[in-house]
Amino acid sequence: MPACSQLLLMNSMLKLFLAAPITETRQKNRINKVTPLVEQDVKEADQEQYLKRGTLAVLGVMKDLLRLQTPLLVRFPRGQFISRMLAADEDRLLFDLGSNNLDNDYALTSDDLSITAETYGAKVEFSLASLEIVEFEGLPAFSAPLPDLLWQIQRREFFRVCAPLEPQFWCHTVWPDGRKTRLRLQDLSLGGIGVLVDEALPDGLQDGDSFNPFRVELGEYGHFDVPVKLLSIGERSVVTGKNETRITPRLSFRFATLNPAQERQLQQIIFALERLARDKSTRFQ
């Protein structure tokens, strides 16, 4: 991904908020206000253990996001966009502008921003009170004070997004008996995928079987090749319009390895599909 301020997906200076110190209570209140995803993941009584406080702890997480170039979901009351970390030190952090100028303007005037990132092993969230525009390597970038604290939730289960019905996405691999097959993608996450099988399963297929090569085709979002391991064999039952029950085999796979570039690509795809599903839901309300 080129280091430019116009970070594409799919396809006036404010004063910095330094007038008063940010207390832990105020920071918590802002997180609870703008990061409901945390509350979906853990019970309120358990949230304390996921807090990272202090410059060293927070900066360490920011450096990891920078090193891995993990996509950042920047959310604010009037919208959201995808960005990435450009720099971080003990005082400030810098991240890229979004691809839409209007979203950038909304973010710049917002006093209620939430940043979410999902790495392969954890989910990170923190809030910012305000942004300003600065220049970084000759291009504009957002700047904000390093937050006093953040959430880092080690994920046993990764957020899973359903694949669209149209267009359908497909996976290509080879059964243990040597036959090529095409599997219909049902859902995906940073941890793995679920697929539907439109043919009889081969004899002897069992949990723990490894598949390599395994290609995930995602239409306009591209494709990636990654070895996977079969976690479980199940089925999906659907009642048709004729009141008949149609049963389709369903397989769950875990990614055996996922390099940082594939992780970034997959995270951007998950964000895009989540937004697409939300937009469709809004249109039909």
Question: Care to describe what's here?
Answer:
With about 280 residues, the chain is α+β, with helices and mostly antiparallel strands. The chain folds into 2 domains: about 25-155, Electron Transport, Fmn-binding Protein, Chain A (Pnp Oxidase, Chain A, Roll); about 160-285, Beta Barrel (Thrombin, subunit H), CATH 2.40.10. The protein is about 20% helix and about 40% strand. The chain has 5 helices and 18 strands. It has helices at about 25-35, 35-40, 55-70, 100-110, 260-285, and strands at about 50-55, 70-75, 80-90, 90-95, 115-120, 120-130, 130-135, 140-145, 150-155, 160, 170-175, 180-190, 190-195, 210, 215, 225, 230-240, 245-255. The strands form 2 sheets. It has a 9-stranded antiparallel sheet with strand order 1-9-6-5-2-3-4-8-7. Strands 10, 11, 12, 13, 14, 15, 16, 17 and 18 form a 9-stranded antiparallel sheet that branches. A hairpin with a 3-residue loop joins strand 3 and strand 4 (about 90-95). Mean pLDDT is about 80; it is low at about 1-45.
Task: Report the sheet with the most strands, covering strand number, pairing sense and barrel closure.
Answer: 9 strands, antiparallel
Briefly note the structural class of the backbone.
Answer: alpha+beta
- What's the structural domain tally? 2
Bulk shape: elongated
What is the fold-level CATH name, i.e. the topology of the largest domain?
Answer: Pnp Oxidase, Chain A
As a percent range, the share of strand residues is: 35-45%
Query: Got a strand count?
Result: 18
On the 0-100 scale, what is the average pLDDT?
79
**Known CATH architecture of the largest domain:** Roll
End-to-end separation in angstroms reads: 36 Å
Low-confidence stretches: 1-46
Q: Helix amount, in percent?
A: 10-25%
Strand order of the largest sheet: 1-9-6-5-2-3-4-8-7
- For CATH, the homologous superfamily of the largest domain is named as Electron Transport, Fmn-binding Protein, Chain A
Radius of gyration: 21 Å
The helix tally amounts to 5
